[in-house]
Amino acid sequence: MKYRMLTPEEISALQQQGCTSENWKQIQVGDGFEVSRIHNTAFSGEIRLGKFKKDFTLPGGVILHSGIENATLHNVSVADDCCIRDIRGYIANYDIAEGCMIDNAGTIAVEGVSSFGNGVKVSVLNETGGREVTIHDRLSSHEAYMIALYRHRPSFIEKMNVVINAYVCSCKSSRGSIGKGASIIGVSTIRNVRLGDGCRIEGALKLWEGSVNSTAEAPVFIGEGVICEDFIISEGSSVTDGSMLSRCYVGQACKFGHGYSASDSLFFCNCQGENGEACAIFAGPYTVTHHKSTLLIAGMFSFMNAGSGSNQSNHMYKLGPIHQGTLERGAKTASDSYILWPARVGAFSLVMGRHVTHSDTTNLPFSYLIEKGETSYLAPGVNLRSVGTIRDARKWPKRDGRPAEGRHDLINYNLLSPFTIQKMIKGLQTLENLRYASGELSDVYSFHSVKITNSSLKRGMELYRIAIDKFMGNSLISRLQEADGSFSDLNEASLRAKLRPDTPVGSGEWVDISGLIAPKSEIEALMNGIERGEVTSLEVIADAFKQMADNYYSYEWTWAFQHIQQLYGINPSKMTKEEAIKIIGIWKEAVEKLDKLIYEDARKEFNLASMTGFGADGNKEQKESDFEQVRGDFESNPFVRSVLDHIQAKTELGDRAKAALLGTT
């Protein structure tokens, strides 16, 4: 836009309308500027003003004209069609984009040079320091995971900080920005904060040193009574109802409300926090806590739901709060659970009761960790048959609130993957070793400060075998399918050609780096490149993570291919059609067994005990009728129907795969 100086007539008109300026020559205006839209405004420093033609319609039908009224502006540019009115303090050192509404606000200013939250060091996991993560606009859960946990590679940490600091320096400015279409109403203080397009800030008390990375497609909302200091809030997130965040990173599509408070914590995409408190936590994707009595502290979580009264301790009253713990992906805590860190809970496990023995169940995933008489008991694998586990797995993708483009965190939602299956294989060996060492007739086995009953051990081994067979069969059938899901006739030559891995990557250990499941070799290759100075930008690092996510199924097959010999005694490079049909048969049986266990678990939600409290003041028939009206009947329940449909669909899939191998498609 071209700007010009004010004319003497315009200056005179502004003065008559209650406006003042230290130097009228420092005010420039754009084409279409109308002096009639500015009243009772004090100008100082360099000022640029656009035209004011647009009207704003407020809830209830009130119409406000764009323009400036009752305000003090210092070193500010105001683009077209903004409405700025009733500024109790002042606005200083800001560029305000077109279509903004700023009403009944206190002070909005940039003081000195700021990087707007970029460069803040968050003391995650260890309150006393040592695992600090430097936050920035483009931070992903995977990058943060490596920085927080791979401290055994100081050269990597040093080079990574150089890359991040280069970006932080590029963010520094003595001027702030308020994005297109932003709305700022009833705010007390905004200092050194960059505000993105379409953001809504209504009634916040204090926003200091941060970035609100809102976009028109995924606006950010910050509501009544909110206090944020040293923060970054990403696209599509909301912070409302008196929530307080200090030294925090908030990822995309997160929601915080009802007085939630957090300090020195990282929250990645789709996290939710209400009522409770967090301190020094690494909240990977889909970490959820809703209860006033819940404290999450010094822990690493992802795909986690914290029950009411969940609590952890990160010190033992000796050297201070130096301990940390991990609940691997999908682990949950029941109401009133407690864990004394350090401890590590395996993936997709459920924690019930109080646990103070520093257990490590990482290689026994899908388990129940239960307190009985102040002793921690483990039931390995039982969460594999839980209807709740399957429900969670289905709900997470549906609850992704992020825009389709520009996602920072790359999420793999698979329950069964090389990451979890490798742990089950180790878990099977562990359970077999326990039984061998203590004898098959032992009532209770001891493992890493937990007890495992004989029946739980046997059941866990059976469930792990079923899950392993299901995964291996899934992987084999997926490999045989065409891109459209169909099967073509397969002779042994074409079978072996299809089974030949695309890449050697994936045969070794796998890791879950906060949502992204990948071969550890690829993570190490990325860190090696950073250490050697070959990877020097955040964009290249993000591209490397994306490549790992895009190639997941190729990497997965390489891993499965390597383990077929170990698990089934079949050489996959020389697999016959009969051997492939054998594995598919084992897979089909595993799918049916697991789905029937889930089906029976779902039935428990419809038994007489579940009807307690229904049919008030009525007899048994009225209780059952009331229950059915509210909850529906078992056979027509959508989830139950989906389990039955899954059995049928997988049966048909297995039959089609066999037909292709037999040449009868």
What would you say this structure looks like, in words?
By secondary structure, the chain is an alpha/beta fold. Among the domains are: 1-104, UDP N-Acetylglucosamine Acyltransferase, domain 1 (3 Solenoid), CATH 2.160.10; 110-286, UDP N-Acetylglucosamine Acyltransferase, domain 1; 392-476 and 491-569, no CATH class. Strand 5 (55-57) and strand 6 (63-65) form a beta hairpin. The protein is elongated. The mean pLDDT is 93.
Percent helix = 25-40%
CATH overall fold name of the domain at 110-286: UDP N-Acetylglucosamine Acyltransferase, domain 1
> N-to-C terminal Cα separation, in Å?
67 Å
Q: Could you say which structural class the secondary elements and strand pairing correspond to?
A: alpha/beta
How many beta-strand segments? 44
The number of distinct helices, counting runs of at least 4 residues, comes to 13
Mean pLDDT: 93
Largest sheet: 29 strands, mixed
Radius of gyration: 30 Å
Instruction: Based on the coordinates given, report the CATH architecture of the domain at 110-286.
Output: 3 Solenoid
Q: Which runs of at least 5 residues are low in confidence (pLDDT < 50)?
A: none
Sum up the overall morphology in one term. Answer: elongated
CATH class of the domain at 110-286: Mainly Beta
- Share of residues in strands: 25-35%
Keyword list:
665 residues, alpha/beta, 13 helices, elongated
Topology diagram in text:
Layout: E1 3-5, H1 8-16, E2 20-21, E3 27-30, E4 38-49, E5 55-57, E6 63-65, E7 67-78, E8 83-85, E9 91-96, E10 101-103, E11 107-109, E12 121-122, E13 133-134, H2 141-149, H3 154-171, E14 176-178, E15 183-185, E16 189-195, E17 200-202, E18 206-212, E19 221-222, E20 227-233, E21 238-239, E22 244-250, E23 255-257, E24 261-267, E25 272-274, E26 277-279, E27 282-283, E28 288-289, E29 295-297, E30 299-301, E31 305-306, E32 311-313, E33 325-327, E34 332-333, E35 338-340, E36 343-345, E37 350-352, E38 354-355, E39 368-372, E40 375-379, H4 387-398, H5 418-438, E41 444-447, E42 450-453, H6 454-480, H7 492-499, E43 510-513, E44 516-519, H8 520-531, H9 538-550, H10 552-568, H11 577-603, H12 620-631, H13 638-662
Parallel strand pairs: 2-4, 3-4, 4-7, 7-8, 7-9, 8-10, 9-11, 9-14, 10-15, 11-16, 15-17, 16-18, 17-19, 18-20, 19-21, 20-22, 21-23, 22-24, 23-25, 24-26, 24-27, 25-28, 26-29, 27-30, 28-31, 30-33, 32-35, 33-36, 34-37, 35-38, 37-39
Antiparallel strand pairs: 1-3, 5-6, 12-13, 39-40, 41-42, 43-44
Helix pairs in contact: 3-8, 5-6, 6-10, 6-11, 11-13
